[in-house]
Amino acid sequence: MPASPLGNNRLLSPQSLAYRLTMELSTFTYRAARGWSVTPFPNLDSEQTLVLVFAAPEYMQNQAPLLELASAYPRACLIGCSTAGEIDGRYVQDESLSVAVVKFAHTQIAFAATQITEPDSRAAGERLVRQFAPGGLRAVFALAEGLDVNGSELAAGICAGLPSGVVVTGGLAGDGARFKGTWVLDRDGPRHGAIVAVGLYGERLRVGHGFGGGWEGFGPERRITRARGNVLYELDHKPALALYKEYLGEHAARLPAAALNFPLSIRDPVPGAEHLVRCIAAVDEAEQSITFAGDMPSGNIARLMRTDIERLIAGAGEAATVAAGPTAGAERPVLALTVSCAGRREVLGERTEEEVDAAAGGLPAGTAQLGFYAYGEIAPYANRACDLHNQTITLTTLAEA
Hints:
Layout (H helix, E strand, L loop, with lengths): L23 E8 L3 E2 L12 E7 L8 H9 L4 E6 L3 E3 L2 E3 L2 E8 L4 E8 L5 H10 L6 E8 L6 H10 L6 E6 L11 E3 L2 E3 L2 E8 L3 E8 L3 E13 L2 E5 L2 E2 H9 L15 E4 L7 E4 L1 E5 L4 E4 L8 E6 L2 H16 L6 E11 H7 L3 H10 L6 E7 L1 E6 L2 E6 L3 E8 L1
Parallel strand pairs: 3-4, 9-10, 23-24
Antiparallel strand pairs: 1-2, 1-7, 3-7, 4-11, 5-6, 5-24, 8-13, 9-13, 10-25, 11-12, 14-27, 15-16, 15-22, 16-17, 16-21, 18-19, 18-22, 20-21, 23-27, 25-26
Helix pairs in contact: 2-3, 5-7
């Protein structure tokens, strides 16, 4: 990837930071028929400004508004990605841009990017975080290619290269319901097959995170006895697809669409281990295998899951309440970055906005919520710095104290 003008990761010394009481924040949107929701752009450009852009996939072809943003904030770190729906406050939109501009007062920022070429997703994660100076690093927010990537391996590579205690969140870019092409964004414009990230430094930064599901297990637990990467072949030495269909009953006739309503949970084979949700991406009748959006490690315990709309909505509120905790005592403003699974949107249908409304309701009054629907969510899990999640909603809160 060509070096970005912000790719030198130069960290400013505390003496060079102009003193401000706390960070300044503005969120706004763009729609082709209406233009920008604010004019002129907020005057927040600086070397300590972060611009986040969550964009409908068609802005790969129509880059004019993206170029306007880059021009308006020439000194800022600008990152973003394509989506399966843009979150703006309590609303979900399509064919739009959702933008947050954050001018930090005390937090230093650094930019990193690298290409991802399967099967080196883990190596790409390791290359990415090697670009960050480890001293004082508090959080990393990463946005990655959503299709040609192994999200589990990418998250593992990121975690392996970071100091203990660094919070890692983000997500995999989306392409609506098309699954044809996703992209990430930096100041040089949109690009395929890459990951971009911002590193956040400073003692006065407050970072919260939470993730929610709303799914419950049913049927017996079964051991994964044959799998390769994200392809599951056997459960308890029996063909995985045949067993899956057995438990779906009449819903099996609607595969693969029905799979959105019936993901699998996986966990380490030790009592009390927490579980990850894995969303089904494809089925192979000939091999009787199932392909998932994340790894299915052999030896793990798997169980079928199901849900209803009310549980999904409640899960969003619970995730927000957890994420809000670390920023509760911080001076305003607070930014909440919400990343929810494209599969949840398919399941929620016309009630999708109730999910983001529930998330907003779990956040402190005045918090600005922005985000997107993704092909995978990255957030801390159990004792690990981060992991790939499917069919979850994740929130990251940022503030300065």
